[in-house]
Design brief:
By secondary structure, the protein is an alpha+beta fold. The chain has seven helices and eleven strands. The protein is 33% helix and 29% strand. It starts with a strand and ends with a strand.
């Protein structure tokens, strides 16, 4: 199991409001999380950093080797709830943090089994030789419109309101996350990223850089470079996991 990550403020914004963390809990278990903060220059980075820290620390506090799928799902859900409560509480207590929130996408990989959780529009992709598959479903206005048949996926890519999300950590007192399970194949990769990457880099480019590029180690940097060459108006973060 190998993993790499990169984050960058992009070409327009002075501050990076994305945050990520990668940690191997034991030789067969890996935890990776990516967050994209919102709420303005004063608080977006606070929301994302706080959510990452609380989520990771709660996993490390409660994780035990030998957990079954139901137990690990509950562990991840509880960590999401605690991160949400913490960000929400800070936003309520301090005026300068009012309205802050963050997306979150995380992968908990044990052996060849991956559990992915998400809130908002940061994504997880499966990348292997025969193609790229988006594993998560965005919690966003445009995704709701696509589901209702009002927009095609292609129209959604350039829709003016595509950055409006319908769920975020810290904006509501009670929050539900989505959970996805995947049995990984040899050579399969997981890509976690913020919308600063997925808005500018398409799936065929992800496939080429990760599967057919020079090496996996440089794939994240190459994807970041593509986004920056296209102007990168938002912060860009990606994490790559190879089984």
């Amino acid at each position: 199991m190998q993993y790499w990550g990169v984050t960058d403020p992009g070409c327009t914004r002075a501050q990076n409001q994305d945050a990520y963390h990668m940690e191997q809990l034991d030789k067969n278990t890996l935890l990776c999380v990516v967050c994209d903060g919102m709420g303005g220059a004063k608080s977006g980075n606070i929301a994302s950093t706080l959510a990452v820290e609380v989520f990771v620390q709660e996993i490390k506090r409660t994780w035990q080797g030998g957990m079954d799928l139901e137990e690990s799902d509950q562990m991840l859900t509880n960590a999401i709830k605690l991160a949400n409560f913490t960000v929400f509480d800070q936003a309520k207590q301090f005026e300068e943090f009012s309205g802050m929130g963050t997306t979150l996408v995380a992968a908990f990989v044990h052996g060849k089994y991956a559990t992915i959780v998400n809130i908002g529009d940061s994504r997880a992709y499966s990348v292997k030789g025969d193609g790229v598959r988006q594993l998560t479903v965005d919690h966003s206005l445009v995704q709701m419109m696509v589901a209702r048949g009002e927009l095609t996926q292609e129209q959604a890519r350039s829709y003016p309101g595509k950055n409006l999300i319908t769920r975020a950590i810290g904006t509501e007192q009670i929050l539900e996350c989505d959970i996805f399970h995947r049995r990984m194949e040899d050579g399969e990769c997981l890509l976690l990223c913020t919308d600063g990457l997925s808005n500018l880099v398409d799936e065929q480019e992800m496939l080429f850089e990760i599967i057919h590029g020079i090496d996996k180690k440089s794939s994240c940097e190459q994807l970041l470079n593509i986004a920056k060459n296209r102007g990168a108006p938002d912060n860009v973060t990606c994490v790559l996991i190879e089984i």
